[in-house]
Amino acid sequence: MSRSAVYQLLGQYANVLWPNGRTNTFDDAALWLNGQGATTGAGTPYVIGGRGIAFVIDCAWHYFTNKGDHVTALNIAKAYTDKYGNYAY
Q: Comparing C-alpha atoms, which of 22, 10, 13, 21 is closest to residue 62?
């Protein structure tokens, strides 16, 4: 799966989560991406508790910001949190 496809998945999921007042932890996002067949750049599943998922969420935010889709970028920023509830940014 391409990087942009992973970003699209994260954006679509964020567009469901945040407008409905829900968030997802980085770990839950990693599990969800793994379930969708997404892999890291090295072709491995995302690791629960690893820094890779936070990095890909940050990259997804930049991807949508650069495309001018600021609504999805905001939803990504707000929908994904660490285990303490801190946002990805």
A: 10
